[in-house]
């Protein structure tokens, strides 16, 4: 008897995590992706993946717990939109997710940093500083090698879910100009809608004021999963579609300042101690505060806003800086005088900002923006500086398909599971409420990908 095949739609980290979990449970997999290569936005992730109570944290003597991670996530989600069952699934499975990536795929996630909104250092990355690529490519490599049990079809856009008596029983996809049907339980892992700028698209419907902004997302992020599952005879529910994360730090490329897709200045830069300065050379916010808070402060500040790294901070994220400089997104100045001369910011303002920042960092004075942690805090006017112009960009969509804590897609009318349909990753909604914490999306992809894989294997 042939082994039943489960269909995974989307080859980013969520889809790959689901696919590997299905293989672990003895199932065969058909993975479809509409793009010519796998990886989605997952390969772009640059800050890392969260976990509480992990082996790398223990090795670094970092105190953390699932309870504290839960509390941070719930606070960020907001009292009205925090969903305890989903947050519990995310946080309680986080250490297991890191252990799975390290143990099964040999991914080195030994560097741990504390990013905005987190009470503890819990965002894990590889020493090379490209966690999205390192993690996702390890999963892709292994799946691609398993030709006996995993079939991967690229440039295959799923256009319809097949139904039978209220259950999802397969998909219809377009490939090479033909429509093809495939039968099996379905895991949707199609990512979010942060690049859905189309007239009538999800951003236009739910956050039209964001349409003029650029995005950090690849062109695939057009909300396909939401459209597929809401087209069912008994449609799937959606939640929080108006909750769209604008990231404060998209790079403005001096060669293409109006480009619709922008590189992200990784959260890790601010985690390493980067300052944000306005057009007058003054700070205006706690740089490691939550993304929504930092974005609002930037929009109120005198622009252009610049991200500035001193020598110690730049050293901590050396590979990031080298990459951004190679793309023409970041400039290195020999000292503050050179920075001032190039930008027109008065040198005295920069000196004053550095001096007051040192005083806040040493505890001699209170930071007026209530910054509490100061990493690599020494800034002098004499040291080399790495500088980039930044702007807020559409980055992540918190809203999506309504699911339960087992990654089962729920109906819109009765919030009951739709037989045969699971979802994981950015396509799902509700895990992060109003605001996703940095590092929690790769985690969502792995945790809910694993849950979806498990559920689909048993379905
Ligand atoms: C620049 C950048 C940096 C980031 N950094 C971090 C970070 O450091 N930490 C963190 O936690 N998060 C980060 N994020 C967010 C995170 O990367 C994503 O939210 C996450 O990777 C989403 O994973 P996914 O598998 O759900 O979707 P994706 O990785 O986007 O994959 C979705 C896949 O589905 C395919 N697809 C879509 N529609 C169809 C269809 N109809 N048929 C077939 N295939 C389809 C797409 O082609 C794509 O390959 C970052 C995002 C960006 C853009």
TrEMBL record:
<keyword id="KW-0285">Flavoprotein</keyword>
<dbReference type="InterPro" id="IPR003953">
    <property type="entry name" value="FAD-dep_OxRdtase_2_FAD-bd"/>
</dbReference>
<protein>
    <recommendedName>
        <fullName>Fumarate reductase</fullName>
        <ecNumber>1.3.1.6</ecNumber>
    </recommendedName>
</protein>
<dbReference type="InterPro" id="IPR010960">
    <property type="entry name" value="Flavocytochrome_c"/>
</dbReference>
<dbReference type="GO" id="GO:0016156">
    <property type="term" value="F:fumarate reductase (NADH) activity"/>
</dbReference>
<keyword id="KW-0560">Oxidoreductase</keyword>
<comment type="similarity">
    <text>Belongs to the FAD-dependent oxidoreductase 2 family. FRD/SDH subfamily.</text>
</comment>
<feature type="domain" description="FAD-dependent oxidoreductase 2 FAD-binding">
    <location>
        <begin position="7"/>
        <end position="442"/>
    </location>
</feature>
<dbReference type="InterPro" id="IPR027477">
    <property type="entry name" value="Succ_DH/fumarate_Rdtase_cat_sf"/>
</dbReference>
<comment type="function">
    <text>Irreversibly catalyzes the reduction of fumarate to succinate.</text>
</comment>
<keyword id="KW-0274">FAD</keyword>
<dbReference type="InterPro" id="IPR036188">
    <property type="entry name" value="FAD/NAD-bd_sf"/>
</dbReference>
<dbReference type="InterPro" id="IPR050315">
    <property type="entry name" value="FAD-oxidoreductase_2"/>
</dbReference>
<dbReference type="GO" id="GO:0010181">
    <property type="term" value="F:FMN binding"/>
</dbReference>
<dbReference type="Pfam" id="PF00890">
    <property type="entry name" value="FAD_binding_2"/>
</dbReference>
């Amino acid at each position: 008897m042939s082994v039943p095949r489960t269909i995974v739609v989307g080859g980013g980290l969520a889809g790959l995590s689901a696919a590997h979990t299905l293989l672990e449970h003895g199932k065969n997999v058909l993975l479809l992706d509409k793009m010519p290569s796998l990886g989605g936005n997952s390969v772009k992730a640059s800050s890392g993946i969260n976990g509480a109570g992990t082996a790398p944290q223990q090795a670094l003597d970092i105190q953390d717990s699932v309870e504290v991670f839960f509390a941070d996530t719930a606070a960020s989600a907001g009292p009205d939109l925090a969903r305890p069952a989903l947050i519990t699934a995310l946080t309680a499975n986080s250490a297991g997710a890191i252990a799975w990536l390290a143990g099964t795929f040999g991914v080195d996630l030994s560097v741990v940093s504390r990013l905005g909104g987190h009470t503890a250092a819990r965002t894990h990355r590889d020493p090379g500083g490209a966690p999205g690529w390192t993690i996702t490519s390890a999963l892709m490599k292994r799946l691609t090698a398993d030709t006996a049990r995993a079939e991967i079809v690229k440039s295959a856009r799923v256009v319809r879910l097949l139904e039978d008596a209220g259950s999802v029983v397969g998909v219809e996809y377009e490939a090479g100009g033909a429509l093809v049907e495939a039968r099996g339980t379905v895991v949707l892992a199609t990512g979010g809608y942060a690049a859905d700028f189309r007239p009538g698209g999800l951003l236009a419907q739910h956050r039209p004021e964001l349409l003029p902004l650029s995005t950090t997302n690849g062109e695939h992020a057009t909300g396909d999963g939401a459209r597929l599952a809401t087209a069912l005879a008994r449609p799937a529910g959606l939640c929080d579609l108006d909750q769209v994360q604008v990231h404060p730090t998209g790079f403005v490329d001096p060669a293409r300042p109006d480009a619709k897709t922008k590189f992200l200045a990784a959260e890790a830069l601010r985690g390493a101690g980067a300052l944000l300065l306005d057009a007058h050379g003054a700070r205006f916010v706690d740089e490691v505060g939550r993304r929504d808070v930092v974005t609002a402060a930037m929009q109120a500040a005198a622009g252009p806003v610049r991200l500035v790294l001193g020598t110690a901070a730049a050293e901590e994220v050396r590979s990031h800086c080298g990459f951004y400089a190679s793309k023409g997104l970041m400039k290195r100045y020999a000292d503050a005088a050179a920075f001032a001369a190039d930008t027109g910011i008065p040198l005295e303002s920069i000196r004053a900002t550095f001096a007051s920042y040192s005083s806040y960092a040493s505890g001699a004075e209170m930071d007026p923006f209530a910054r509490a942690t100061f990493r690599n805090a020494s800034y002098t006017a004499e040291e080399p500086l790495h500088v980039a112009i930044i702007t807020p960009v559409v980055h992540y969509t918190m809203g999506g398909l309504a699911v339960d804590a087992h990654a089962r897609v729920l109906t819109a009318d009765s919030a009951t599971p739709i037989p045969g349909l699971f979802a994981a990753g950015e396509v799902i909604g509700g895990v992060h409420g109003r605001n996703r914490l940095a590092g929690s999306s790769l985690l969502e992809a792995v945790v809910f990908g694993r849950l979806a894989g498990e559920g689909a294997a048993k379905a």
